[in-house]
Amino acid sequence: MRTQENRTIDYLDGLERDKIFMQVIKVGQNQRFARIWSPYKELQYTVESTIQKKQSDAVQDLESSLRKHKADFISLLQNPAKNAAHREVIRKAYKEGLPVHGQQGTRLLSQQFIQEALTLSDLFDLNEYAAVELLMAGESQQPFFPGFKRGLVAVLLYYDGRSSLVSTLRTLIQARKGRTWSLGLPEDILSVIMNFTVQLMNEGLATKILYLMQTLDVTKELDRLQSPQFRALGSPRHRRQVADKIKEIKLTLADCLFCWCCQSPLSKTDTQALISYLQTADDDGADGTLSDVTIRLLMALLYSIDPRVPEDEQGPGLPKLPIFIDPSYVPSLTDDILSDKKWTNQGLHGIIQFAWAITLHTLSQYTDLQGVTEYFEKDEMLVDLAVEQDVFSFLRNSVLGNPGFHSEEYYVRQMHNIVTDFIVQMPLKMKEMRNRGDETSRIILANQQNGLEPPAGLRRDFEHFLFLIGDLYMKDSPDRELALEFWYLPDSVVTGTTPAHNTPYTYRPPQRQISLYKFVRLAGDLLSPPLFIPYLYMLRGLANGHQCAHHCFNLLQNNGIGGGSQVNNVSWDHFFMSMHQYYTNLRQELPMTSDLAHVYRHRHRAISSQEVDGLIAVVQLLRQIAFWDDHARLALCENPHWHLLVVLLGLVSCDIPAKLKAELLHALAAFCKTPDIAATLWQSLEASQVELEEIEARDEEFPITRGFLELMNAITDNSIPAGLGSGYRVPGFAPYLEFLRDNILLKFNTRAYRNPAEKWEVGMMVLEVLYKILADYEVSASDFLDQPSEVRGETGIVTNKRPGFILMEHMLNDSNMLKMILYIIDEATKMLDKYIPFPGKEHLEQAALWCLKMIEATCNKQEEFLNALRESNSDIIVSQMDKLLMSINRRSGKADHLVNLAKYVTYNSWLIEHALSAVHILSLVSSSPIVYPHIVGLFTADQEISQHILHGFVECLENPEEPEDLDIDSLTIAEDTSAGQIRNATRQEILRLILCTLNQPAPNLAHYLLGFEIRKPVVKSDLQDPGNLFMV
């Protein structure tokens, strides 16, 4: 499992990346020394730059820095102690002065400064001299934090210093040589890091980390900060930054142990301490998922007790791991894990029991391991105990259910190892669990036939295990291809001769792979109805990726009629025969009316809820395979016996539940990845005349709308046929566009939603489709001329305009569509400025980006559009976008649309595309005579907003990343565009904005951005404090 892939050094995942990194760590440049902040920033910079650049000539600086700060690592996060004598000196500093680091003589301190410093000392139980230094550093850093007083900045610097120290520790541990990854460091640097980290661990580092994590309670820390005694939290922005820093410190501490365990296991004593910590862990989320910290420590333990050794380190004798070397390791941990001590979270106990059972079974294969063989016999008992505690359900819901689980590759790999080891090494337990699953299924079916509910307490462990496998691989990155280990087909056996020696050979997949594929096949044999959905769910997860989807397609095809005399109920033939039968029956029941909303007043008599769930599972599996496998898409659609597109679209038109109809639309969207199929689907859509029902609004759930939007998004990736709808109606895309604009975009904000996040998801999806159409539009003079058309023999009908033309017309008018776009931009700034999490935040951010891009695309095209309009003598009336952006915002009563656009520059730390789009829009409109006389006044009307906007531009220009080439004139943000490219494109766009506005009448936007005093003549301006562009 060894890889050369670097783990990310910077794990900042807060709403803001505080601007105290590269530009602030250069201590000595207009900055104050603070012993609990600036030295740690220097240390962090030295360590990270040495490891990233991998330069051996920096090894002396690295060794010197580590030696200097060794005491800081040993006494991790312990503040310099308070001192009564120092406190007295500080109290008298208003008249006697105080020596300041880096300055000659003494400095008199104001009474207010002294009081603030002593408050900081009491707040953090910090030495008084260190508190003074911290407050001075906060004072010097104020320009980087507009709107924050020096005390609030000092609080941020305090936590940032602690974060830098633990981040440096994590970086050192990540760089260690070990069994999981390698950073490819030179031997001299690696030797320094290995020796230093081993010394720290021998000094009890693991115990210190666990103690710190146990005592660091984020909620209590924030409560103390905001208590009346200290009032150390300011605006929502400051509160969020502080909270993120505290959370980051705790998470980084956990990551230190995780990284260590990945590379080399902990000792027996430290492993027992880790188990004791997890025994009392109680910081689960409100939804039952484990917190990021708990998951990180859990995975650290799983890596630590994993006896797996890389192939290149395997050799004669036992591996040199604590579990093999320490004869008391296995007995002690077995006793701890089997002890009767109460666990705060029994699910965690079950996971550890399950993992330890697999470890014991693995150890039993080492014949040289003496003195502990009696403990190996407890592996099955441990599995039984774990299963009794619903370990598979807990893993699925509480571990894999954590939103960040699948973003960490080494979490997924370890869970993959545990699951596959269980299948391969303990086949008898698997068979036993399957037999119990079959017995449970028979009981459920017998009760259903008698109209009874299944008895409570039935064991469904096999179902949960199948669901666990599905979730593990379904949400994983397909690039890792972990699920490929489950696939093996007979044609994988290759027989041939070597080219050089003409000697015969036969290649067979590893026995492990054969065993896993056998599990997949046997799990689907003689499948009882209650296991049907879990099995398909597992297949859906195992079909994640191009090769996996192709293998799954072949499995379902081979299970069909051609594979034997009887059709397997898990086969394409069975799936599509059943779907066709449902379609035929439902079509016969459809009333002869075009008002499909009326249909929903009837009960779904032809299909039961169990059948609906089964069909949904089938359609979801179909969608997964069609999404990933090009060959499967063509094969499925071209099969003359299945009539796939006709059946899928036909079912959408039938009286079926909304959730099934939505899944059918999602599946159709997956088939649109093939252009030929998309073209066929356009024709089928027109012929089917599918309509969307208003039933969704009454249910306050909109799955069909989301399915339709995904279909529109996928099908418009290919060109829209020019004669779309010919023979049925006036040709063109206009009816679809009208529905997208009027029925979805203009109504989504006023509808009630059971799930608040769905509101912004719908808005995001419809805006993505509209932006794509607008961006692809190329202005043509023919668009302004009416084109005659003939529909069913009727002449004199005007052909619908191209959809891009229609959107441009609406964007260049004070239309309801433009008002909605400006509303979303405004609403997003209001929500984001609160700096608190809310449902649908990511969807709102993405919706705001599409709104910005729509305005940007309109600005790019409007000159050509207006020129074509003038030449055509058309009676269409439009306005310039710059004029529309200067109109009054109905929500605020001010002309602040440009201010709202500029606010997105202040979110540049995490919304990098938004910042680039906003700057580009300002560049496009700033030269307009309608805009430039007023834009500076708009930006400076509110002093606080003005400071934040100016600082946002400064942050963009002070981007520390290395410049990367990117043509910003033709910028299209592709998936492979790096964050560095986007940030540097933003930097270039700002410089272009300054150059373009520099010659405009003063005071102009360039003067504002360059920090001139705009309330008096520019020539009389003085240079301002750091924080404006003069410092660049």
Written account of the structure:
The structure is a single chain. The protein is mostly helical and 1032 residues long. The protein contains 47 helices and six strands. The protein has a two-stranded antiparallel sheet with strand order 1-2. Strands 3-4 form a two-stranded antiparallel ribbon. Helix 25 (529-542) packs parallel to helix 29 (609-628). The longest helix is centred in the C-terminal third of the chain and has 32 residues, at 841-872. The protein is flat, with a radius of gyration of 33 Å. Belongs to the NUP186/NUP192/NUP205 family. It is found in: Nucleus. Keywords: Nucleus, Transport.
- CA-based shape: flat
Oligomer: single chain
Strand content: under 5%
**Ends distance:** 45 Å
Give the number of helices: 47
Structural class: mainly alpha
DSSP, total strands:
6
Global mean pLDDT: 87
Radius of gyration: 33 Å
Largest β-sheet summary: 2 strands, antiparallel
For the biggest β-sheet, the strand order reads 1-2
Low-confidence stretches: 1-30, 493-501, 592-604, 1027-1032
Helix content bin: 55-70%
Family: Belongs to the NUP186/NUP192/NUP205 family.
Main location: nucleus
GO molecular function, one term: structural constituent of nuclear pore
Subcellular location: Nucleus
